[in-house]
Amino acid sequence: MNFDGIDIGFETISFFEKEKFTSLEMANAILNDKTGIVDFFERENDFIQLQQILKINQNIVSENRIEYGDFQTNKQLSESICNYLYSKNINPKILLEPTCGKGSFILSAIKTFDSLQQVFGVEIQEKYLWHLKFELLEYFLNNPTVKKPQINLYHCSVFDFDFKQVKNQINNQELLVIGNPPWVTNSTLSTLNSKNLPKKSNFKNTKGIDAITGKGNFDIGEFISLKMLELFSKENGYFAFLIKNSVLKNIVFEQKKNKYPIANIEKYTISAKKEFDAAVDASLFVCKFNSVPELTAKEFDFYTLKPRVTLGWVNNKFASDTEKYKKYQHLDGICPFEWRQGIKHDCAKIMELERINGGFRNALGEEFELEEDLIYGILKSSDLKQDVIDISRKFTIVTQKRIGQETSQILEKLPKTKAYLERHKNYFLQRKSSIYNGKPMYSIFGVGDYSFKPYKVAISGLYKQTKFTLIKPNGTVLLLDDTCYFIGFNTFEEAQEIQNLLNQLETQEFIESFMFTDAKRAITKDLLMRIGLVNHSVGRKTKQLSIF
Hints:
Strand order of the largest sheet: 3-2-1-4-5-7-6-8-9-10
Mean pLDDT: 87
Number of helices: 20
Radius of gyration: 29 Å
Distance between the termini: 65 Å
Number of strands: 21
Strand content: 15-25%
Helix content: 25-40%
């Protein structure tokens, strides 16, 4: 272990200078008495190196924050959380932090919970464990009369650690599993070639196209949270994790299937910007173990404890606001229309164009002429701000009318378009998505007869607003990109009727009752397909419309 960069306090340095340990066994025995830490030094070499490095006081070297999803909990927040848990009569005898980092929660728990007898901490970064050991030593040197629990710290990945050694020591004593697991996804870690990953498994049983298009991606914090619930939820005790709101929502959603014996499920929203300088929505997730399974979570503001909403299951339907949902649940069903995503090509620099000087210009700044045969106006999420739209800022080349259609014959008849695409062929060859594998050159995705319906009702998939826009042609049909969802119609009257229905207050309130605004994509096809328009107060009119 290289101790360069470890922050060692003044009291600790003075302590080691005074003690002048002569052996590893002597050091571990005295340090266990001072701190409660079992095997402060696991290796002889660490003991020797520390004696050498203690002559110099240096600062901590920052670690790779991205690879480890590393947002260390500040002491003020960890102490506020522990104090709040204590105020709820949570006072464990055993504490487990499966990704303890620099140990803010462990130190705060020791200060807060007077019944604490054993502490278990697991951490993959060795420097963080040493930081914690020295912090604990510093604390106990300054507070010699404080009760010391037995502290077991393990340098190990949470994915490899054998938690049975913790379970075997619980013996029906009250347990608190607490922590702040990594805020990072498996796909991000894979991109970084990180080793900080669980063994490969499709733990959500994602299948087919869902796995290809992103639903197979999952949050590492979610994996760890579910692992802890699976291992310890039948014990007497509590669970308190700082996790992303998306992870918390998924845990409550999956609770209907998993039925972990947890109850009193609560969500305390925090400011991740304030606490971690992170642009993410996060909360403290608290629940009680060994209980009759519950399927809802009450939401509060952590700083004021003001109640907000309750999220969870109502009559086999999942809602972000259960009370509001109950008022409008008669609208929940299966939409009589098929919501579609717009065109996907993953070649915006080449495929998305502007009209200029009678020709076109791409994002590379190149100007050129093309035949008009494959040119269509295209709208993006940022364009869907008006009630009715009939013009577009951007245009796109649509090489296919259906997925998998051969492109060579089409382009043979359009020499300018063919030459333009061939000049930029490498952009298409470099597309990473597997959906293009085995498809004709210049293929696009998300295209079909529905794409060319003259009238559409559309909504952005990127923004939080639920306003629906009517799109009509102006000489040619307008298309949408894959950040948008839409329904296609043959007549203006049909499209206008559905737009009015979707924008009614009753429908808007219903959508808000099960939409999670803090999700990466608040609007999804799954959400839109739940709008059962035939059950609306005027929804019977939709039965007479053409459904595409």
